Amino acid sequence: MTSWPLQERPILIVEDNPPERELIVAALTDYDLSRNVIAMSSGTEVMDFIARRGDHQSRNAVPALVILDLDLSDMHGLDVLKAIRKDHEMGAVPVVIFSGSDSALDAAVARELRADGFIVKPTDFRDLQTTVRSLAVFWASQVRTTSSMGTSKHD
């Protein structure tokens, strides 16, 4: 695996709702929290990304973070999380579940599968914007702190 500085590695967003996906991308890019955001709309596309199939055969970086919706149109996000955790390259990548589900069972299973966070999407658009910005700012502070200390296992 190529060693990339943590801040230069992409952030992978998996969200099938286009307005919500665009909002997450905007929060990460508008605040200069990531220079490289990859947005995907289906679990199948993520599976291809993990396996380097199709359009993703030549990917050369492992994401620094995955923001994953659970309620994808083609498969459940927990199945995507399982695949990420089983992959030798992506298994240690932090995954934050960002979903409309407030199911305690979904949250418990996500924890069992080693999700690094579980955030319930607010239904109000302004609250959604605020939550996405907070997540992005928190993540950016963690990346900068970890990379400046040189202790990240992801470097």
Task: Explain this structure.
The longest helix has 25 residues, at 125-149. Helices cover 43% and strands 14% of the residues. It has a single domain (6-147), classed as Response regulator (Rossmann fold). α3 (77-86) links the parallel β3 (65-68) and β4. Mean pLDDT is 83; it is low at 1-6 and 145-155. The chain has a five-stranded parallel beta sheet, with helices on both faces. It has helices at residues 18-30, 43-51, 77-86, 104-112, 125-149, and strands at 11-14, 37-40, 65-68, 95-99, 117-120. The protein is an alpha/beta fold.
How many alpha or pi helices?
5
Note the run of SSEs as H and E.
Answer: EHEHEHEHEH
Radius of gyration: 15 Å
Count structural domains: 1
What is the CATH architecture assignment?
3-Layer(aba) Sandwich
What is this structure, in a nutshell?
This protein has 155 residues and is an alpha/beta fold.
Task: Please specify the SSE layout and strand pairing.
Blueprint: E1 11-14, H1 18-30, E2 37-40, H2 43-51, E3 65-68, H3 77-86, E4 95-99, H4 104-112, E5 117-120, H5 125-149
Parallel strand pairs: 1-2, 1-3, 3-4, 4-5
Helix pairs in contact: 1-5, 2-3
Features:
43% helix, 155 residues, five-stranded parallel beta sheet, Rossmann fold, single chain, alpha/beta
